[in-house]
Structure formats: C-alpha cells, structure tokens
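Continuing the series of single-chain predictions for the mutant panel. This is the parent chain; the variants come on the following pages.
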Amino acid sequence: MKNKNVSKKEEILNTSQHLFYENGFLRTSFEEIAEYCNITKPLITYHFGSKALLGGTIFGKYSKKMSDLFFEKAYENFSGKNNIDIVAAFTLMQLKYYQKDEKAFRFYYEFFSSSFADVTVGIEDFYKMSNRLTGNKYSMEELHMIYIGSNYAARGLIYHFITGNITCSEEQFELYYLESGFWKFGIDEIRLKEIHKNAKAILENISINFLPDFKWN
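Parent structure:
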C-alpha cells in the first residue's frame, strides 16, 4: 500500500531505486517507472531530467545513507582511530559490497559505463579531510579535479577486478585500490600497509548487513 505522505517525486525515486536494483539500469525504462507510479513519462523528466540524472540521484542517495551508517558505527566503536584508517575501512567496505551483491554491482557498472554524470557525493567531506591532512596543499579547483579523477578511476578498478580482468590477489588489489585513492595525501608504502591493516581490523569489528534495494543496516 502506498504511503500517502510520500510526494510524487519521492515515489518516483523509490520506485526507480527498486527497479534499477531488480532489473538493472539499462533494462529499466521511464515507461516502466511511469507505469509503476501510475504517472506519465513527462513527470519523471520534469523532476529528474534524464535517465542518467535519475541514476545519479539514486547513486548519491544510497551512497550517502551507506556512508552515514558506516561512519556512525565506526566512530562509535573506534573514536580513537586515525580518521584515514576509518575512511580506508569504508573504502574497502564499498568494495566488499559490490563483490557480494550482484544486483548492486550490475547497476554500478551499467550506470557508470553509460553515463559521465558528475557524481560528487561526499566531496565536502573530502575537501575538509584533504586540507587537514595536506595542510591546504591543494586549491579547491585542484581538489575537485582530484576527487572526480580518483573516483572514476576507482570505479574502473572495481569493475575490472570483480569481472576478473585484473588478476591478482585480493590483498594486492586492496592495497593498490587504497593507493589510487590516497596518493594525494603523500602516503608512503609502509604507511599504506599500516592503513590497510588497520582498516581490515575495523571491518572485522563492524557488523553491517547488505539488503536489497541498495540498503545497509
């Protein structure tokens, strides 16, 4: 039964999230979404513009909820840990998620292989952390380029590792994956291995369940 307190825009978003998860980004059409919501296609376009922008909104929505949940649990249990160790743990948790949930991974690679949408979820936190760790080494414009570049590089790495195009051990991949995201902090190999070890220890002590429709608890 539909919740009468949910706006039509939110209903479109929730329905699209479910259909993108169950059927994939490519196989889900505006026609199908409109039929489920009992609306016309132009209303979807009015609220979200294009399918790529709708996909980006959904990716941003579930990514933010995932990060909020993870960091809440992490800081509750590991408040004394270095912030970058916790960020690394979340990075590895995301990798684990897409390895374990085939439907989430399908949306992930279909959306990013068909769209160059500027997905900048979490960029404000990235600015703060980068400036704190590098002593304002980079300008805001440089940080923005670094953030976009490293995020799209990370998505390519995840895709090729999970699909078997990168042939190395999981530990080797995790180290390289972290290095690709943290190089701008000037972290050397010894510190990177320490971060990786600490991140793995954090993950072993945080309980998070992966649920359908891009949800964690």
